[in-house]
Amino acid sequence: MLIAAVTVEASARAQAATSRVVAVRTDDGVTLGATFYEALRRPAPAVILLHMQTRTRDDWQSVANRLADAGVHALAIDFRGHGVSPSGPPGPDGGFDWSRLVLDVQAARAYLAARPDLVRSASIGILGASIGANAAILEAAGDPAIASLALLSAGLDYRGLRTSAALQKYGARPALLVAATDDPYALRSMRELAAIGGGIRDTHTLDNAGHGTTMLGRDSELARTLVDWFQRTLL
Predict the structure, then answer these.
(1) How far apart are CA 219 and CA 207, in angstroms?
(2) pLDDT (0 to 100) of residue 4
(3) What is the pLDDT of residues 36-61, one digit of tens each?
(4) Does residue 4 sit within a domain?
(5) Which residue range(s) make up the domain with 143?
(6) Centroid of chain to Cα 196
(7) Of 121, 154, 175, 206, which has the maximum CB count within 10 A?
């Protein structure tokens, strides 16, 4: 029995999704560190994963593996100035230019679109946390190929990345918004954003779960909710 159990477990691992480190090049010349989590199906939907300020793509590892195991590719990037990614050109005031995070998301989208053998170009979603959620909305607003959004602790305005008009432009495409009761700004933003755009807007309020990807460690069902969302809206 033990030998059989070990054999089954080894077989499951052999069939599991794989991941590899890749490089993503932006239009303004920044090379972003990224990890591509590859589902077994070909071609498959894909989700771009965008982390919080001061964090890295590693925060998404568990969710990315679960997406890939569920038949959805995942591409997690390090925003410029985070993780292994360089900061890139400065802003007009000589400091960090937060508006250029949108270029990072566009580059991730282009990376996926250039691989039609792997990725269904009409089935790409974005999952973002905090400022990553705001960058997701801004990219999706101008890119009709983005089919679905999931937003953890999105804000009406983080670092000048304002979301209301962008979500209005995103229109009737589906969006999942998640915020926690102990994060009042994100909670208020979620409620206001949920009323914008006229499409499907699913909202989840978590009890004392914190901000952004912190919620993944405090709510045991959140990762499952995210995977289920993209299975419903992309597959």
Answers:
(1) 8
(2) 40
(3) 999 999 999 999 999 999 999 999 99
(4) no
(5) 17-234
(6) 20
(7) 154
